[in-house]
Q: What sequence folds into this?
């Protein structure tokens, strides 16, 4: 085994919310990180640049400003860098935007993942970690969501593209013996978060005295997952490489999602404690000490009323599960937001 200080991780979407946090964690551990991010304008590019500037302070970070779907970009990087671990986070995110601009999801999510899998086929890393989403469970009503449950009825094009990438990855894992772990994330939030997500939008609006839009008249719940918990789970799962298929029969009793024909596994990373949207809003109101003005709205196309992660497999594989209370995580985000955007600190 190589010494950890010699190990390389190639991370796509490294200037994004989650990509920034996992990149920083690995850099702090002594890894060399090759970060691929096109700095798209889906949301404020300056926020991405600020994240990346922090990473660049570490000399072990190499930024690459390219689109993952551009032919041969990833192939050339794999050939030159030969990464030990690959974390694929680059994707067009957002359920609602996928209704307005579905082509962006086809190009980034489907074509980008294809380019990555082709590069991994040519230059196999020790482990590929592929980001998916709780939205992949789609119209499933059985709660909590378990990795072994069928997930065949996605209700947004965003979710459909992410589930497609899971299927693509499984085929490459089977055909070319590529160890792949797919993460299904559940409503990640925290410092350096995305401006298109509820916590960011609600905090901004409340601090500015504007009303917030509360969808489905507030009758929603989410398995909110704090970003530090998420990246800790990702880091631990980096070392939980799917074993050879001969061991499959011995772990069926663990409800393992590992494929019977490939070194491939799907793992939920969530808090496993759904919170009502009203509770989430109350946590923001408490953190900013301002009562929110609310516009109650109908359910949006592509949304689901509830998400809830079963995290038993994560516990079995890593010994840990996310546990940051929503009130604590929201308070940390608000503190970061006020500092970053120059609001007066109390």
A:
């Amino acid at each position: 085994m190589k010494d950890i200080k010699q190990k390389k991780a190639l991370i796509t979407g490294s200037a994004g919310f989650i990509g920034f946090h996992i990149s920083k964690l690995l850099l702090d551990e002594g890894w060399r990180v090759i970060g691929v991010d096109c700095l798209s304008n889906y949301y404020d590019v300056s926020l991405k640049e600020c994240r990346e500037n922090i990473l660049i302070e570490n000399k072990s970070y190499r930024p690459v400003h390219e689109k993952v779907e551009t032919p041969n970009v990833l192939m050339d990087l794999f050939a030159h860098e030969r990464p030990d671990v690959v974390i694929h986070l680059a994707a067009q995110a957002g359920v609602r935007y996928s209704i307005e601009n579905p082509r962006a999801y086809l190009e980034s999510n489907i074509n980008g993942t294809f380019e990555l899998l082709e590069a991994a086929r040519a230059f196999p890393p020790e482990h590929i970690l592929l980001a998916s989403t709780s939205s992949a469970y789609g119209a499933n009503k059985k709660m909590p969501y378990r990795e072994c449950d069928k997930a065949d009825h996605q209700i947004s094009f965003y979710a459909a593209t992410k589930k497609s990438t899971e299927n693509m990855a499984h085929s490459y894992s089977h055909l070319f013996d590529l160890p792949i772990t797919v993460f299904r994330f559940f409503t990640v939030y925290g410092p350096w978060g995305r401006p298109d997500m509820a916590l960011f939008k609600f905090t901004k609006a409340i601090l500015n005295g504007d009303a917030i839009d509360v969808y489905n008249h507030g009758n929603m719940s989410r398995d909110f997952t704090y970003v530090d918990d998420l990246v800790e789970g990702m880091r631990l799962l980096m070392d939980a490489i799917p074993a050879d298929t001969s061991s499959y029969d011995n772990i069926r009793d663990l409800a393992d999602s590992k494929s019977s024909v490939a070194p491939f596994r799907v793992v939920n990373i969530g808090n496993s404690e759904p919170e009502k949207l009203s509770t989430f809003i109350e946590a923001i109101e408490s953190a900013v000490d301002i009562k929110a003005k609310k516009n109650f709205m109908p359910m949006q196309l592509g949304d689901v009323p509830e998400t809830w992660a079963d995290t038993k497999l994560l516990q079995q594989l890593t010994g840990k599960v996310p546990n940051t209370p929503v009130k604590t995580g929201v308070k940390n985000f608000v503190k970061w937001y006020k500092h970053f955007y120059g609001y007066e600190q109390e």
Remarks:
- The domain at 4-188+227-271+304-324 is CATH 3.40.50.720 (Rossmann fold).
